[in-house]
Design goal:
The chain is built from eight helices and ten strands. The chain is of the alpha+beta class. Strands 1, 2, 5, 6, 7, 8, 9 and 10 form an eight-stranded antiparallel beta sheet that branches. The protein has a two-stranded antiparallel sheet with strand order 3-4.
Length: 234
């Protein structure tokens, strides 16, 4: 994971850029991160239910205790998407485990009395993202996938809620929502995205048509825009 961050930081402006046209925009060089330490382990974790701590790299995201990593990694799709956006924009941040602790302090995630977790919670996240990282967040509700994709711009990415079943789009799905992915491009017919719990070929820099995305999409999400110190879009 650290090597991926360093690679993203080294990308020149010619690589880490957005190519925009009236109906199409695509951000190139957006780093992909999995919710778990190693992207190549995702399929075995979600399909074969192997122990995520069998991956020797599990400590790379800053977790010190195996049980803590097991508990949180499967719940951090939104924070993982945000980490990709921050590294794309060159915004410094702590390792994921430390970011999680700060997010908990700001109400982005809430641990319930029954031991479950609520979150990522959009409005506390929006306040935290702008105050801590200079990223403006606009919450999107009751909005179709085309409208959310239309928000993408040279300085804007989007996180949208979909079913985790989107990792296998050729299969029928039973739900919408419950998982977050990062949109980083749109065309006239569909969107490019990173899925932090995806498996190849629908893991990193994946593309799906709008009608397929709509099957999984929960009509909510967040548009992320980096702003400068004067409050303007970068």
């Amino acid at each position: 994971m650290q090597a991926l961050r360093e690679q993203a930081a080294e990308l020149g402006s010619g690589q880490r850029r957005a190519l925009a046209h009236e109906r199409e925009i695509r951000h190139f060089g957006v780093p992909y991160y999995s919710q778990w330490a190693s992207p190549e382990w995702v399929e075995r974790i979600v399909e074969d239910d192997i122990d995520p701590c069998d991956d020797p790299a599990w400590r790379a995201s800053g977790f010190a205790q195996p049980d803590e990593y097991r508990f949180w990694a499967k719940r951090l799709c939104g924070l993982t998407c945000f980490e990709s956006a921050l590294d794309y924009w060159g915004i410094e941040h702590a390792p994921r485990a430390a970011m999680l602790q700060d997010a908990l302090r700001h109400g982005v995630y809430r641990i319930r009395e029954d031991g479950g977790v609520d979150g990522l919670i959009y409005h506390p996240f929006a306040a935290w993202a702008e105050a801590a990282y200079g990223v403006r967040v606009e919450v999107m509700t009751d909005e179709d996938i085309q409208a959310s994709a239309a928000r993408l711009a040279a300085d804007t990415l989007a996180i949208v809620s979909v079913s985790p079943e989107i990792r296998y789009p050729e299969r029928a799905n039973a739900s919408q929502g419950g998982h977050l992915i990062l949109l980083h491009g749109r065309s006239e017919g569909g969107v490019w995205f990173h899925n932090p719990s995806g498996v190849a070929p629908y893991q990193a820099d994946a593309w799906l048509p709008y009608d397929t995305m709509a099957r999984f999409h929960a009509r909510r999400g967040m548009a992320l825009t980096r702003v400068t110190e004067d409050g303007l879009a970068d």
